[in-house]
Amino acid sequence: DAIGNVEAVDYTDDLGSESYSYQYDAMNQLISDNSHQYTFDSLGNRVACDGVDNTHNALNQLLKQGENTYRYDADGNLIAKNEESYVYDAFGRLTEALTEGFRTTYTYDPFHRRLSKTRFTLQEEQWVEISSEKYLYQGDKEIGTIGEHGELESLRVMGVGVKGDVGAAVLMEFLGRAYLPLHDYRGNVSMLVDAVTAEVVESYRFDAFGVETVSSQSEAPLNPWRFSSKRVDAETGWVYFGARYYDAEMGRWTTPDPMWFVNGTNLYCYVRNNPTMYIDSEGLFFNEIVKFLKDTFRAIFKALVENVDVSADERGNIQVNFNTHPSLDHQSNQHLQNDA
User: Fold this and answer.
1) Which pLDDT band, with edges at 50, 70 and 90, does 199 fall under?
2) Residue 147 lies in a domain
3) What pairs with residue 54 in β-bridges?
4) How far is the C-alpha of 131 from the C-alpha of 104, rounded, in Å?
5) Is residue 198 domain-resident?
6) Beta-carbon count within 10 A of 220 CB
7) How does pLDDT run across 205-230, given as a tens digit for each residue?
8) Which of 87, 98, 190, 338 counts the most CB atoms within 10 A of its CB?
9) Are 228 and 219 a contacting pair, CB within 8 Å?
10) Which domain holds residue 300?
C-alpha cells in the first residue's frame, strides 16, 4: 500500500501455489492473513487471536493465551509455560530448559554467542546426558554444529542476505551431504534442495509470525535454520536470534529488549507486529525488508559499475578488468577469451 505494508504475496513451491493477502490496523499492525485474525491494543499486545483472548499485565507480559499460562521472573524473563520451566543467568541468557521429561542446558561466550547445548533425560531419578553439540561462528553469525565426538553435523556457507544472516545462506551441509537453501522475500528458508540430484528434500511454509503451517517432513526436519534463517530449538520450539529467543506461538520475544525502549515501549513486541514488512536479524533492532533489498541490489550494481571494466580488442577477445582496490588504484585483471 502507500505506506509500504505488504498487501499480497504469491508463493509457489513443490507443494503447490498459494496466495496470501494481508490487512493492517491504523498502527500498521497485522490484523488479518489467510488463516488468522489478530487484535492488538495500543501498546502492541496481541489481545486476541482467532477469537481466543489473551491476558497481559501492566508490564506487557503475556500471562494467558488460550489454555497456556506464563510466569516471569523479576527481570521480566519468561520462566514458565504451563509445566515447562526456564532458567537464566545474570545477563538474561537462557541456561536451562525443563520440557516434557528432558533437561537442556546452554552455555555462552563473553560475546553472548551460544557455544553449546546439552540434552539430558530422566532415568531412575537421575539426569543422564543423551546428546550435546557445540556451535561454530563466522563473526557473530552461527554457521554450524560439531557433535559430541567432534564430527561436523551441520554447516552453512554465508553470502549476502537481507540483513545479517537472514536469507544469506547459499549452501548447507548435513552429515556430509550438500544442499541448496531457497529463501522467500522475508529470509525464511522455504525449501532445501539436494545439491547433487536437484531434488527438493524439504519444504516449509510459515504464517506471518513464524508458526510452521506446512512441512513436507513427517519427521524432524533435517534443516534447523528455517524461520528468518534462524535456528529452531526442538526442545522449546523457540527460535534463537542471538540476542534473544522468539516464541512464534506467542508471536513475541521471551525476554525483554536488551536495548530497552529503542524499539518502542513494549519490550516483548516482535517487529511492531508487522512481520510482513520488517525483520529483526539479532533480536535487537527491526529493519524494513524492502529497504534492505533495495540497498543490497544498489550496492551490488554500484560495485559492478565502478569496479568492472569490459573491453574487446580487434580480434574480438573480451577483457574484464576487476578493480579490487579502487582507493589505491590497484587493478587485478582477469581475462576471459572469446574466440569467436
Assistant:
1) very high
2) yes
3) 65
4) 10
5) yes
6) 8
7) 999 999 998 776 657 789 999 999 99
8) 190
9) no
10) 296-335
